[in-house]
Design brief:
The chain is an alpha/beta fold. The protein has three domains: about 100 residues, Urease, subunit C, domain 1, CATH 2.30.40; about 110 residues, Roll (Diaminopimelate Epimerase, Chain A, domain 1); about 280 residues, Metal-dependent hydrolases (TIM Barrel), CATH 3.20.20. It has 18 helices and 22 strands. The strands form four sheets. An eight-stranded parallel sheet has the order 5-11-12-13-14-15-16-17, sandwiched between helices.
Length: about 550
Amino acid sequence: MTVRGADTVVRAAAVHTLVAGQEPQRVLALVGDRIAALSPDPHGLDDWITEATTVVDEPGATVLPAFDDTHTHLIHAGHGTHDVPVHQAHNIAEFLDLIRWRAVNTPEGQWIRTTTNWQELNLAERRMPTAAELDQASDRHPILVKRGGHNDVVNTLALRLAGITEDTPTPPGGVIGRDEQGRLNGRLIDNAMDLVEHLLPAPDVATRIDGLRLASSDYAATGIGTVRDCHVPLPDLAVLQAAREQGVLNTRVRALVSAIGMTDPAQIEDLLDGMEDWRYRADPLLKVWGVKFVLDGGLEAGATEEPYCDHGDFYGTLTWEPDALARSVEAVVRRGWRVGVHAYGDRGVRTLLDAYQQVLECNPGLPANMLVMEHGGLADATQRERAVALGIPVTVQHPLLHDTAEVEDGFWGPERVNRLFPAREWLDQGALVTAGSDFPVGAYGAMRSVWGMVTRQTVTGVRGPGHAITRDEALALHTVNAARLTGESALRGTLTPGRLADLTLWPTDPTTCDTDQLRDLNPTHTLLGGHTVHAPRK
């Protein structure tokens, strides 16, 4: 074997390559952005070391591939680095004080927006603020309060600027909230959100780039090396590209261009026209993966076969007419792009599979993993079997369940919440399953997700323990399986010569440490293409 100098040599207690059947290695050599060699002997690659080689000698550390978060929202996280941090509030008074302080320091008339990673049940009042309460924080600034990706609350000025009155018709697939007297309360859900959100001016590019720098650094600090961002507005591709060009992206990005708010195939054709410039950009750090649709609501409006608890005859909300969705998905795949569709409730899952089957029948021979089910939260055995037969992969997000179990109990009841994200059954039935966080609804973090899938722990205790998977399976969902989903198994997912040098170093072995350690375990180092994107501060 011809040996050349390595740029980096990493020695550790164990290097888990995640190649099936391969024993742990002890050292690996990196050349450029690739893994060049491995050895089970900690000094087996000493011939690769030159004066120019960086040697990382961590005899107590464990090396794993960098992890993927296959359903998250980096764009939202980037916004949140500069938004009002209402996730820090313990009650509505503190919530309003945080907005009030921002208003004092914001020119009159400018929009104020908040972070999105909070839950109303974490507030003492256990509810969302109202438009009237937001008016107390400021009636001279339009205010947008977001919670997750499906809910907005705005103040009276924002409603007025959007022209929303008590006579405004509710858009299909949306909800305009009202109080018990039928008056507007500022709440906007799903397709109603765009009535206000289209008015928000885009933050300046420098602020956006800095937000992406900070957010991607935070992801990398938890072991995430690649994010599959499932809600990227078309104009934000240019912002991601600018961040890439400035060298501040600390994760790889696989972007799904957002079709949220669209309900007509003609709108999708226009969106696809705008994506054409990205078709042939072969950048391993930043790629457009495809198009993201939302078929049903989230926690409050996922489409179900049975009615919601204590909500009369409410069965959730479908945001697309099924035939229009099928025609829109077909338009995407005919142009060669892939599709991910949010389907959360069991009726949503069934409707999505109907649409996907229609597309597959009209387009035989589509490449593998062109059509993906995002969430599949309440998928039952029949739906899972059908998805596997159609070749539909699914992304699951236990952190979402962990953080929202109590909220969902109120809408769906404990029995249905216990059945959410049945990873064990998906795997046993032969599905390609990958894992993520759905930040800002769930908290991101490689081992936080692994811990959740292994334990089924939530804020209300263990839910549906029969759906738990093994630690090795959970690791694979974020690595080997994730690379299969994105079509990059030849580049990522395992630590083997020729693969990208995307790896993480952990202070204890995640494959054998106490399960309780996993939840808050973070890596000491994260490398992307051989370049360190997270390391201890000196």
